[in-house]
Amino acid sequence: MSQAWMEPHYDAAALLAAWVIAVYALYVQSLVVRRVQAHDRETGIAWLLGGALCVGTGIWAEGLLNLVSLQLPVQLGYVRAIVLASWLPAVVISAGTIWLHCHERLSLRMRMTGGILTATAMCLLGFINVSSIVLKPHIEWDGVTLGSAACAMLLACFFGSILIRWAQRGPLRHGRTLLVSGAVASLFRFGQILMIMAISVPAGTVCLSADQISGDALQFLSSCAVLPLLALVHLGTVLDDRSVRRHEALRLSLQQAQAALQEAAEHDASTGLLNRVGFEKALRGLLGDDGRQVLSLCVFRLSLDGFKTHVDTYGEDLGDTTVRHLAGRLRGLVRDGDVLARADTDEYLLLCNGLSDEHQVAQLAQRLGEAIHEPCLIKDHDMVLSCSIGIACFPASNNADQLLGHSRDAMLTARKAGGGVYCFYERGMDRIGADQVEMQRDLRHAIVRRELSLHFQPKLRASDHAVSGAEALLRWAHPERGSVSPALFIPVAERFGLIGELGRWVLDEACRHIRVWHEAGLHLPVAINLSAHQLRQPDLEWQVRDALKRHRVPARMLIMEITESAAMDDIDASLRVFDMLDAIGVRLAIDDFGTGYSSLSYLRRLPARQLKIDRSFVKDLDASLDAQAIVEAVVRLSHALGLKVVAEGVETEVQARILAQLQCDELQGFLFAKPMPEAALLAWLVQRDTQVPVTSSVPPGHAVLDEEDRRSWSELESASSP
Ligand code: C2E
Ligand code: MG
Ligand code: MG
How far is ligand 2, taken at its centre, from the CA of residue 590, in Å? Predict the structure, then answer.
C-alpha cells in the first residue's frame, strides 16, 4: 500500500526575502573582503571578524527564511535553542569564506577544497535548520533531489570564489560584483530550495514544536533585523574605503611635495641645473662612502671673470639671462653621465667621469673656455665673457671635499693669472703657485710683445761632421727675468692651456725660416719639439698642413721631436697622431730616448725616422763602459728598425769619437755649437766652412741634403711654378 504525503506549499514572500538577503549578504561579503585586503594585519582581522558576524547573521537569516517558506497543512513551530545555535556555524562559514577570498594567490586546488568545505558546511546548516522543526513521525528525504541540492550549492561556492575575484578587478567594479553576487546567490538559493523540496512529510504528521517560535516571528526577525545590519556594514565599508583612499591620496601628495621640495633644494631655479648641494650629492654618490676608486673622475670649476661688474653694469636681470644662456652652451658640451651644476651666481661645476688622460681633460677645458668666450647677444647687448677654470682630478684629489676644494684652488690660481685660462690643481698650489701664475700672465703677452724667438742648434753627421739639420729651441726674453728656460715655461704653458698657441707660433716660425733659408740657398731641415698636449690637439693635422702650405715647404724638411715619455703616455693615441703626421710626410723623431720606459717593440709600431739618445747616456760615455754598451745596443736595434740615431748633449771630443765608432748617425751638442739665434747660426755656418766664399748673408749649400730632400724641394718648386 502506497504511503500518503502532505502537500507542501512554498511561501513566495519568504523565498523572495531569502533571495534578497542572500544576494545582499554576498555583495557585502565581497566588500568586507576588500576592506580586509586594504588594511594592515590588525585592522584586517577586525574587519574579518566584524564582517563575519554580520554577514554570518545574514546567511543564518537567509537559511531560516528558506525553511520558513516551507508550509505544511499543520501548524509549524521552530525550536528556539536550535534556531539560535545555528547562528554560530553561519558565522564560522562566513569567516571561512572571507578568509578564503582574501588570499588571492591561493591555488585552484585550495580554492576547490574551500568551495567543497563551504558547500558541505552550508548543507549541514540546512539540516540543522530543518531539525528545528520537530515532527512526528520523521521527515523523509528524497535522495536524488538532495544530491542535486548539494551539487548546486557546491557549484555556487566554487564559482563564487572565482567570479567574485574577477568582478572586483577592472572597471564597473560595483556593478559587476552585484551581478556576480546575484548569479551566485541565485544558484545557491536554487540548491537551498531543492533541499527543502527534498523533504516529504507523511500525512497525519504532527508538529511537536508548534508551541515554539512561529514562522511569522522568524520571518519578521530575519528580514527586518538582518537587512539593516547588512546595510550598516555596507555603509561602514563605503566610509572606510573613502577614508583609505583619502589617506592614500594624502600620502601620495605628501610624497610628491617631498620630492618637489627635494628637487628644489638640489636645483638652481634659474637654469634648471643642479645646485651646489645637488652636485655634492652626485659627487659623493659617484665616489661612494668607501671612497671607491673612480679612476678618471674630474671636477671642473668654471668661474665667470668679472661677472659682478657685468651685473653692476647691465643689471641682475640681464645677468640672469646671461647665466642661463651660457648654461645652455655648456649643456651642449657635456656627455650623458656628466653632471653640470650652477654652484654660485657666477660659477658652474662640471663632473666628468671617463676622460682617459690629462690631455683629454685639457681639451675639454679648452672647449668649455671657448664656449663661454664665444660672443653672445643678450637683450641687444653684445657681450664677450671669459672664465677661469680650475680642474681637480681623482685620485690626486682623493675624496669629494678635496675635489671641490682643489678645483677651487686651481680656479683661483687661474683667476689670479688674469682669467680666461684653465689650470690643473697641483700639490702646494696655494704656496708655490704665485710665481707660476705671474709667469703665465706674462707668457700670454709674450707672443704679441715679440719676446719669443727661436734659437737653432745644428746637428752634424757623425762620420764627417757635415751639418745635417738644426733643432729649433724656443727662447723667451722676459723684460725683467731675462732669458727664461723652456724647461721652466713650457710646463707652465701646458698647465695653463697656452701650449697650443705657443706650439702654433713655433711651427709657423720654423717653416718660415726653412723657406727663407731655402730661398737664400741654404737647405736646412729643421726639427721642432712637440709637447704631449699638442699631440692631442684635434686640429694638429690642419695646423701642420697649413704652415707647410703657407710657407711652401716640403713636409720632409720639417722634423717633429716628441719625447719618449709623451709618445708612450697613450700609445694608441700617439700611434694615430704619428700615422697622421707620417701621412703628411713630416719626419718624426723620438726625443730624450732612455728617460721613459718604452720598449723598442713599442717603438717599432711608431713610424718614427730618428731616435735621439738622451744627454744622460752621452755624458757618461767617456768614463763608463756600461754607458757605451747601452748606446751600442740602442744604435744596433735602432738601425735594425730602420731608425737613424742622433746623440744629444755631445760636449767632448772623446764622446764624439766614441759615438762615431758606435755607428751613431748624427751628433748634437755644445761641442759643436750651442743653440743660437738665426744670425749667429748663419755666421757659425760661414765660419765653419772656409772653403765657400761668403757671397750673401746666408752661406749656401751647407746642409747635407739627401736625394729625397733635394727631390722634395724640386717637386714643390715645379708644382708651385706657373
Ligand atoms: P730637448 O728637445 O731635448 O732639447 C735639447 C736641450 O738640450 C736644449 O735645452 C739644449 O739647449 C740642450 N743642449 C743641447 N746640447 C747640449 C749640451 O751639449 N749640453 C747640455 N748641457 N745641454 C745641451 P733647452 O733649449 O733648454 O730646451 C729644453 C727642453 O725644452 C727641450 O729639450 C725641449 O724638450 C723643450 N723645448 C724647447 N723648445 C721647445 C718648443 O718650442 N716646444 C716644446 N714643446 N718644447 C720645447
Ligand atoms: Mg728636442
Ligand atoms: Mg732631448
Answer: 8
